[in-house]
């Protein structure tokens, strides 16, 4: 497999992460991680696939999420890789009868391993660069 093919596979992996999270497809999400993977960010750290899936269930407080994957720069060396991926994550929720939208500007610092011919996330660190929380115009009409 060429370096370009590996990089495309890694990009698809991070897009599949966004899709699995937004669909609340925890089975699909679990398949993206190595068994002993770590997912961490401000105020949380989940060690192992079961803990990652359990922790991501916390997204249930939002009626909808959309993770928009942007810049993705990966470095591949043999069967390991690292990347930084930009993402805007939209979270829709209700508070005091008002529909609100919480937006996060995220940078993920990722590490990957190719296991049995498939790339898996071994460590994903969420870095929150900015956030904004405001009423969602037109949502309560």
Key attributes of the depicted protein:
141 residues; Nuclear Transport Factor 2, Chain: A; six-stranded mixed beta sheet; 3 helices; 6 strands
Overview of the structural elements:
The protein is α+β, with helices and mostly antiparallel strands and 141 residues long. It has one domain (3-135): Nuclear Transport Factor 2, Chain: A (Roll). It has helices at 3-23, 26-31, 49-56; strands spanning 33-41, 44-47, 64-77, 80-95, 98-115, 118-135. The protein has a six-stranded mixed sheet.
| Assembly classification | single chain
Count of domain modules: 1
* Averaged pLDDT: 96
Please give the alpha-carbon distance between the first and last residues: 52 Å
Q: Percentage of helical residues?
A: 10-25%
Find the count of extended strands (DSSP E, 2+ residues): 6
Strands side by side in the biggest sheet: 2-1-6-5-4-3
H-E order: HHEEHEEEE
Tell me the overall shape: globular
As for the CATH topology, it is Nuclear Transport Factor 2, Chain: A
